[in-house]
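Hey everyone, long-time lurker, first post.

I ran two proteins through the pipeline my lab uses and got sequence/structure pairs for each. Pasting them in order. The first:
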Amino acid sequence: MAYVGMNQMYRAMPHQCGCGGPSPYGPIGYPQPTSPPASMQYGLGMLSAMLNGMMQLQQAYGSYLGQQPSPQQPPSYPTQPAPQTQAQPHGKVIDQMGDGDDNRQVASGTHGNDQITQMGRGGDDTQIAAGKKGNDLIHQKGGKGDDSQKASGGNGRDVIIQKGARGDDNQNASGGKGRDFITQFGGRGDDVQKARGGKGRDNITQKGGAGDDSIHVAAGQGKDKVVINGGRGDDRIVYKVSSGKDKATVRGGKGNDTLLLEVGKKQNVTVLNKNGKVIFKRGNGGTVVKVDGVESLKVNGKKVR
């Protein structure tokens, strides 16, 4: 909004206030050095005060005298509602409990953040759980018996926990896309554990427990962290090296343990002992595996030590 300047208003006023003659300010745009009389200065001061008051009212309450409202007026509200974003579903909470017999438990999540719990007791239980999109939590516990556990997280940041007890358990877990946390406990017995990462920076922990265990891990394409502990018994550990730059720690535990590394042609790997001494190296960078308590080491079927 444009406001009229005081000089322009004075020039536009008729000069019948006792000063006589033409305006001492001359034509608009060419002010003369002569100042207006004191009586006129007083009148202009009053007029200026009135205009300032009207301007403040106009700024507070909107337009007046046909002028446009000031930008400082109270905000107006749209007649149409603003577009709303659809929230992600909350997911499911699924609890499945065994009764001591041979149970088959199957659970499928949603595209939200699911929580799936499967508990076996006595008997040879089968537990299958699948998440989808979302950050899922899957917890499987077998109990006594020869249990079979399978879990997949799907897309998202998933947490998968598989626990066996007494018995020869079979555990299989895969993370999928996203940063996943996979933990497997075999317990007593000759257990088979398989864990696979995916796209993302995964954390994989496998503990065989007492017994002659077979432990398999395939890291994903990110910078994964892998910790393997065979426990008591003669364990067989298979590590499939990925294209990522993983950091792995492999402890055989008590017994006669074997570590088998499967390395592709374009993949680099360095194997260190517990003191940091290089046992095997191919290329620069890539995956670093630190071993302790492993009696036999083979790379692509060839014995290194």
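...and the second, right after it:
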Amino acid sequence: MLAALALLAGGCAPTGDYGRPEPSFIHDTVYPLVGAANALNRGETVTFLPLTDNEKGLRARAYTIIVARDILGDAQSVKPYLRYRNIVRPWPHTTPVNAYHDRILFKHYESADTRFSKILSDMRKDSESIAPFRAAADAVVVDDQIRRKVIATEPELAARTLKGADARMTDNDRIIGLTTETLSHRLKIYSYALRHLAVETPTRRMLDLEAAYRELEKDVLTLEHDYDGKVAFAMRMRGDGPLDLAPAGAGGYSEPVQANSLARPR
């Protein structure tokens, strides 16, 4: 089934500005329906409520990070795309940590230095994508807090509305958690590639590469701290305590959690 879907779609959605998906009937209508059907078969809740503008923005920003065709290549970006569309289970991440390294090592480049330029460019792309994603995620989390507040004060809402809102908030958490987990995994593939290529094709640019890696690592750890998928889901499910609409980083909804260790293997 996955192979047929990949062939039908040509791998992933056509890419528009800033790496975001262009409008497409296959990717905007057919694939979401397939994802909803598969999610129902897995016992998950789904909703056909229309997306808000903020939810559309979140998904567009998440797409650029999760699918990342220019970083992963066409073949390696198919499975992330199917996870993004909820056609396959989003967790655990099954992409081999060495796949990115192998693709760069065995692809023809004019010089070894070009390989490191590629990694440096990819790490910087990921770093630059975090702030826009974070802004989109902030907006959606605030919207979902408003949803919970209204639900708590409106006891006579239709069951269909309540079920749809619950499923939408769950899916918002899935997108935020999947994007965060994707960046965590991206750190691992960059670490693997840098450590192995430093031995296979040494370069004098390791200081620049190390600095870019550490900058990305810092940003991802911060994102994990505030938006770990499990924490976001627990926040939504708990639904108690006072509502705080302040953004994360300003005394808002983020809670202190133990960030997963992403220290580079030595």
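Reply from user beta_strand_b:
Welcome! Quick read of the second one: The two ends are 40 Å apart (CA to CA). The mean pLDDT is 80.
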